[in-house]
Amino acid sequence: MKQLVLVSALALAASSTSLAQTAPGPVAPGPIVPAIEPATLPPAGAGVPAGPPIADQPDIAPRYAPPPVNLMSRRNATLTPRERRSVELSDSWTGNADMPARGNEGAVMFTFGSTLPTVVCAPLYVCDITLQPGETVNDINVGDAVRWKLSPATSGQGQGATTHVIVKPTDAALRTNAIITTDRRVYVLTLVSRQKDWMPRIAFNYPEDAQAEWAAYRAARQAEQQATVMDTGQNVAALDFGYRISGDKPRWRPLRVYNDGSKTYVQFPAAMVSSEAPALVAIGADGKDQLVNYRLVGDRYVADKVLDRAALLSGVGRRQVKVEITRNGRQ
């Protein structure tokens, strides 16, 4: 019994010693860690700091943008005198001082071919280049096809449909050119983009249209003149065509007879040139033939008086050919 009590006392003492060793106590101070200073970026123009290859760190984005790349050579080609003259001629055309005018519906009107038109447009806006009605586009080529968008559109229908080229820049401060080929002509344009300035509509005046209008005007005037003015210069309105032609029908039968108030004119067909010319006689109130003074002028007889009744005679006897001329209202 005494041995059992002694063993329990020894186990209790050992347990107390173990708890004392594991009990928390004051923490000893550790080493002081200095604060991390923010990284300093290299000054502008300094080279990119060297580092391990990107392949060694695929999950880490580069800290600095890559250096700019020169896309165009800083050198310029040397021009021969002939090439320089060619450039000067082109510059004189592109720099022509011909100014655009205002057209219908606010369109800016350029005279086609007189100078190099400039289309000013802005981002988030579209500009409309209106072509001639009935004209169709074959090809569109743009110097900067990445930042400029040119697309076709149409208005109207049928043969009178109008083609529009819609221009849209994606950024400001851009300058390039475009060439639009159609079934009628070639358009060469300069494209400029600005932040706010833009031209909603652009159209053209065509010199050949004006020439066609003048040609149509002259043709109409000539037709009117032919209808109202004789080839002799006489005005039809001042002439009396009230004559009736009767009798035989030879090749030289007159085309028409008229008077101008003082003279009588008998116009013949061209066939009379190759046949015998008939004689012109006046017919008096008694029905008898009378001599009349007349002469041949071009393709017609011109009698020196106003004839009420007359006859054209060719041949004699039974073979005589007779064509009678009677003024209307006169027997």
Automatic annotation (TrEMBL):
Region annotated Disordered, chain positions: 43-98
Origin superkingdom: Bacteria
Record flagged with keyword Signal: yes
Keywords: Plasmid, Signal
Keyword presence, Signal: yes
Signal peptide: 1-20
Family according to the record: Belongs to the TrbG/VirB9 family.
UniProt-recorded name of the protein: P-type conjugative transfer protein TrbG
